[in-house]
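lol ok so funny story. i was supposed to be doing the assay writeup but got distracted and ended up predicting the structure for this chain instead. priorities right. anyway since i did it might as well share w the group, maybe its usefull for someone
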Amino acid sequence: MDTVWYYLFLLAVLVVGFLVVKRTVSCLIRSIVLLVLVALLVYVYFMYFR
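and the output, tada:
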């Protein structure tokens, strides 16, 4: 049951990240947001799913 919460968390991060990137105008800010999201997803993957 714990993994369900992690999947919901990942889904929420992706949705919020998509909305932020969609509304962002600057390419630099968009790149930073994407890098933070990727880093967060990699962290969650290595901490909980490995």
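The mean pLDDT is 82. Helices lie at 2-23, 27-48.
back to the writeup now i swear
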